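Our preliminary data section would be incomplete without showing what the modeling component actually yields. Below, a chain of 99 amino acids is followed by its predicted structure, encoded as tokens that our downstream tools consume directly.
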Amino acid sequence: MPRTVCGRPANSCFKPNGVPMPKLEQVPLAADEFEALRLVDLQGMQQKQAAEQMEVSRQTLANIVKSARLKVVDCLANGKALMMTEIEGVTDDHRNPTE
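Predicted structure:
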């Protein structure tokens, strides 16, 4: 199912300071996972509203948020690199990401 993404991360990778990338395990964070975190956690949207904006069901959004949060905390707790990735089926909507 296509998903709408309005926001983009400031960087394509977040990693621990002072550790060369080849020495780090890399964890991919898909564009829809970033968008779900941005809408729910950063902007404080209710999941129903965020799901409507991304054009997915509320349950699908909840699953995306859960997966994304697990990846972020894994990277923070275990010193891994978080890599932003693109996924097929994502519609890049160029609306203002603060809408």
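The longest strand covers residues 26-30. The chain has a mean pLDDT of 85. Preliminary results of this kind motivate Aim 1 of the renewal.
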